[in-house]
Write a structure and sequence with these properties.
It contains 15 helices and 21 strands. It is of the alpha/beta class and 521 residues long. The protein has two domains: 175 residues, Leucine Aminopeptidase, subunit E, domain 1; 321 residues, Aminopeptidase (3-Layer(aba) Sandwich), CATH 3.40.630.10. The strands form four sheets. Strands 8, 9, 10, 11, 12, 15, 16, 17 and 19 form a nine-stranded mixed beta sheet that branches. Helix 12 links the parallel strand 16 and strand 17. Helix 8 runs antiparallel to helix 10. It is elongated. The protein binds ligand BES, manganese (II) ion and zinc ion. Ligand BES binds next to helix 11. Belongs to the peptidase M17 family.
């Protein structure tokens, strides 16, 4: 059930003469003008000049009459009736014109995404959006390309027959640039394709039905994609996990008929890289029923997305193989299904983890930290300088930061690098503390640590997750835990380049960071 790929290429033909099904242009809003006096208050963004000329100066006026305001996310379609070659123009809102600068990359990324999404039903679409011709040009071109590809994503789904009224997603995106033969521009397009392809993989895995993506099936799918990308893959099955001392993954996995897995994916750069090693870890709970501490049934289906961290990490590796950064990267992906059954782990159990620490289980629904503790400890035994872990770990993240901003905990410098990387790519994160009193509250009467607050106090819920995971990171490793409980899955209406379902967060943050580490250590 994989979603279709979209092709992307550059064109330098005059947009007015492009033989495509639709041309996307940008419009800015003009704040300060009175409502009711809308005509003429729009401003066409650069890139649309030749199209405006073909309309004899009436394009802005016509768009305003059709209701365009230039607000972000707005898409107004217009039949061209022979004025230009393409039969349809789609004007996408870019918000107010930034003074003396091109729109921020995230504005362009969202606009391109919204436009390509709104143009489902057209096969070939050209984006004639404002691109600066200065040092910001690569970032803008990258943003437009990524946005177009991500906004055009559609999950294949499981319908047995095609829906008659359904408009097929855009198949081909052309980006209008001044010089389509420019090598630097071509490199940006190639990068955007690699990144968008990784996001597509992660969204497909997240959107898959949980009966179709049990831990063994998920492991097979990840392993075959990674091997096809030329990466080295090792899969530990339930026997290897039990014999290897992976107590956390084994405990969570033992309640399900579908046994757990730990997938290890390695990328080694030609020549060995800078000496710094990066480890990625992602939570792969293919379905989280809560286990014996069962969840309420309302909304439980969204727990098919409890492997969004695993999907992001595995998908990021596919792009790493293509982008070939000069730093070795290994991903550790623990996979299990959290189910209640006669063999399930239970509250009160004491589990010996991979690093030898003993954990008292108080709530089987805090399963993510159990499988992650083992995977983090294994990454530290193999050796790494940076450890980036991501997981749909706590509802507390959603309460604290909402559905768009991920929480990040760990060593302060790396947390700040995660925040900066997230800001650069449009995946916001915010640093959170790891307070000593929260750790104190997790002291166990019988074991080394309780899995959650010993009195089941939910205060600082997200922080308890971070504090617990810290127990499995060795001293010298710089680490960050990125809680994506909210941003990993989008249950609302599509917006910008986010479609419904898996978002692909934080694939692009991870890739940005890995490239940054490859450049500057
Ligand atoms: N997978 C959930 C967290 C989650 C909640 C992700 C909502 C996405 C949306 C996690 O395993 C969980 O159940 N967490 C519990 C922890 C508690 C039992 C300590 C929670 O958040 O309530
Ligand atoms: Mn849970
Ligand atoms: Zn979970």
């Amino acid at each position: 059930m994989t979603s279709p790929t979209i092709s992307l290429s550059l064109v330098d033909t005059d947009p007015a003469e492009l033989a495509v099904d639709a041309i996307v242009i940008g419009v800015h809003s003009q704040p300060g003008e009175r409502v009711g006096d809308l005509v003429g208050t729009l401003l066409l963004a650069s890139g649309a000049e030749s199209i405006a000329a073909a309309f004899d100066g009436k394009l802005t006026e016509t768009l305003a009459l059709l209701g365009a305001t230039g607000g972000p996310g707005e898409v107004i379609k217009l039949a061209t009736l022979g004025t230009v070659t393409a039969p349809v123009i789609a004007a996408v809102g870019l918000g107010p014109e930034p003074t003396g600068a091109a729109p921020a990359p995230e504005i362009l990324r969202r606009a391109a995404g919204a436009a390509v999404r709104a143009l489902a039903g057209s096969t070939r679409v050209a984006l004639a959006l404002p691109l600066p011709d200065d040092a910001d040009a690569p970032a803008a071109l990258r943003a437009v390309s990524e946005g177009g590809l991500l906004g055009g994503y559609r999950f294949a789904g499981y319908k047995t027959r095609p829906q008659p009224a359904r408009r097929e997603p855009v198949a081909e995106v052309l980006v209008a640039v001044p010089d389509a033969g420019d090598a630097a521009a071509a490199a940006e397009v190639a990068r955007a394709q690699a990144v968008a392809n990784a996001v597509r993989f992660s969204r497909d895995w997240v959107n898959a039905a949980p009966n179709e993506l049990s831990p063994p099936a998920f492991a097979d799918s990840v392993a075959s994609a990674a091997r096809a990308a030329g990466l080295e893959v090792e899969v530990l099955d339930e026997v290897a996990l039990r014999e290897g001392g992976y107590g956390g993954i084994t405990a969570v996995g033992q309640g399900s008929q579908a046994p757990p897995r730990l997938v290890r994916i390695s990328y080694t750069p030609a020549g060995g890289g800078t000496g710094k090693r990066v480890a990625l870890v992602g939570k792969g709970i293919t379905f989280d029923s809560g286990g014996v501490s069962i969840k309420p049934s309302q909304g439980m289906w969204e727990m098919k997305a409890d492997m969004a961290g695993a999907a992001a990490v595995a998908a990021a590796m596919l792009a790493v193989a293509e982008l070939a950064p000069a730093v070795p990267v290994t991903a550790y992906v623990p996979m299990a299904e959290n189910m209640p059954s006669g063999t399930a782990y239970r509250p009160g159990d004491v589990i010996t983890m991979f690093n030898g620490k003993r954990v008292e289980v108080l709530n089987t629904d805090a399963e993510g930290r159990m499988i992650l503790g083992d995977a983090i400890a294994r990454a530290c035994v193999d050796g790494c300088d940076y450890l980036l872990e991501t997981s749909t770990l706590t509802g507390g993240q959603v309460v604290a930061l909402g559905k768009k901003v991920a929480g990040v905990m760990g060593t302060p410098e790396l947390c700040e690098r995660v925040r900066t990387a997230g800001e650069a790519v449009g995946e916001p994160t915010w640093p959170m503390p790891l307070p000593e009193d929260v750790r104190k509250g997790m002291d166990s009467e019988v074991a080394d640590i309780s899995q959650v607050n010993a009195g089941m106090d939910r205060a600082g819920h997200m922080l308890q997750g971070g504090v617990f995971l810290r127990e499995f990171v060795t001293e010298e490793v710089a680490w960050a835990h990125i809680d994506i409980a909210g941003p990993g899955y989008h249950s609302g209406e599509p917006t910008g380049y986010w479609t419904k379902g898996g978002t692909g967060v934080p694939v692009r943050t991870l890739l940005h960071l890995i490239e940054d580490i490859a450049r500057q250590g």
